[in-house]
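hi! just following up on the protien thing from before. the input was this:
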Amino acid sequence: MRILVALGAPGAAESLGRLLVEIGWPAPSIATNSTEALEWIEASGGCDILIADTHLTPMDGFTLRDEIRSRLPALRAILTSPPGVSPPLELLGNDPFLPTPFTPAILADCLHQLLSDKPVAAPLQTEETADTPPPPPRETLIGSTLGNYRIEAIVGEYPWEILYHANQTNVGRNVILHVLKPEFSSDPAAVTAFQHRASLKAALDHPKIASVYEGGEWRGVHYFSMENISLPSLAARMHSGKTLPGLGAMEILALVAEIQKQLAASGAGSDSIDTEDIFFKRGKPPRLANIAAPLVEPATPPSIEIARLASILLACIDPSPASEPARIILQRAANAATDPLDWEQLAELARASFSRTPAPPAPPPPPAPPQSTPFPRPLLWAIAAAALILPLAAYLLFTALNSSHRVTIDDLGTMVAIPAGTFTYQGKPIDLPEFLISKYEVTIAEYAEFLDFLEKNPSLATSFDHPDQPPGKSHIPRNWADRTDVTPPHPGYFNRVKRWGQYQGAPLTLDSPVFGVDWFDAYAYAKWKGHRLPTEQEWEKAALGPNGSAFPWGDSADPKRANTGKDYTPNPDPKTGGDIDGFKRWSPANQPATDTSGSGVIGTSGNVSEWTATQLDRPNGAKTAVIRGGNWKTNPSPATFRITRLPPTHSDEALGFRTAMDPPKTP
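and the predicted 3d structure came back as:
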């Protein structure tokens, strides 16, 4: 039995290997990237079971699985991901997904199902098997003391944690105590995820949101305490037969919209809201449970959450005529899935409803004086200046807030001339004629123009395709557009750029390089542009640093000078990562400026790796397209670094391209 564990974190891969041995399986081989995984399979002559991280690099776990299975159809695969990261489950097919952290019993059950004829559900259930001792009963903590907290009752339970009603004895207040389940307390990844969730909730500072008091560990038990809101929940109100007045519904709507905007601005995600999370009593302002949560991709669009919230409130609102204006607004919001609203628009609708009560008639204006006194001259100058300055300030503010929605690279499209001559290619001197290569990687804005042309000129759409392109293939990049294959649809990354200027917890603008494109997409774009893809020899010559150095800045790697993976983390918290080069994932195509080759070409050592025109024949008759350059997932890459194992249909969130062309012919 040949088992391969391919996880990006070496420590996690080794831990999983030991776990497999502990539950009676053969010791697996370990790979920390997809290139190592493919090399091991070639060397060993095959693979029976693959356990792969969906966030592996340079190809992700889904693509690695598909690549191996194209050669080994009998391959059994299990996909997993880092803690707190939700992968696109629709890509699983019939393979199981193991959400981390998981117990030995869960892994054993998964492997057993994998090798049986039974279909494997995804995601897997997490019950313990019969031969595994069950965890201690949940009630064992009731009546006990955890540090300064006397635990009184269970009030809720989630996959990773239990919620208790407790009394903080040192200050005499009632709290809600979140406790990590004992089966996860010895798992560092689970503890880190639990603490990360607590820190996001603690950072959400709002007078109408439940506050986090403190967190810590007591004799191996990890916990954090939160405010126990004294108002009845909306669920309790409905259970007692009480309804919600229209004004109260609008106050709740405005509060949720305000909190969601605050979370989005901080880069955090949120839990879905239910009636247990809303607290309301007539005559008092509503309050909300702390809904801050790690940001996961793909995130649920605001319109879906708005429709869900409106449906909840519609079921609670009273039938009186006074609540009719609120009911109309809620009915509009309940249709947000098909007639989209964002949180700002929702807040405006709710706030507008507050002022619908008729105002008393205004008193008649006092009689005008017989003669008006002219304004002092300095005041007139001040008014005139304000009339000029305020529109300018508004424009500047609008520009600053919408910078992700426009192109800011002034010389986008610039081609750099590389003179003819000899250079050392992969250790051997070769001659190249003069050529031109784009200064920047092709950006999202540039590729959007290509797709717009194809949409407006369908009769010409296939005229740019490569002869070997698979029939029926689209040139829309992976995850570019709204996904309509699941319900509800999720905004693709192009729409996220236009709406929010971020993707996967990281800034993303129209100036960022396009990604998710395969080799055929890059070929078609270049042909549409009147260019071509550079050969890998041309690419390498253009990427060399001063005096032919391996890196754009010299002969030694320096992660501060390029957007690389030295500071990359899959943690969805936007505040983590990017502490070395300033970018967690993608950077604008003109940054950092220190990643500029001796020829003036930017972004060859980092940002995204790039397709070249060069293709190689594989022993099985298939072709691979050569990829050059480093990216935001990898270490700084020298100009000689090349990837030669990926099919031309491969795509990745850290893979893009640039174009080249021959110099104009002179008469």
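The chain has 15 helices and 26 strands.
The chain has four domains: 3-115, 138-227, 234-354, 415-661.
cheers
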